[in-house]
Amino acid sequence: MPNHYHLPVRQEKENAISKFMSQVQNSDTKYSILREKNKKDYQEFIFNQADYQRKLEKIKHLTWEN
Description:
By secondary structure, the protein is mostly helical.
């Protein structure tokens, strides 16, 4: 993830560049937080599926068909 930007821009209104850069940085931060949250959710899902499979292995002898 880059820690700075190089953009060719021209300011036509007062504080327009500051406002624009603020919006870009806020969007980037929100995206990074969301991506990290989704990564943790996915890892939790995978762990839960593996745990569920281990539990099935313990009780599979209880079924009618083997």
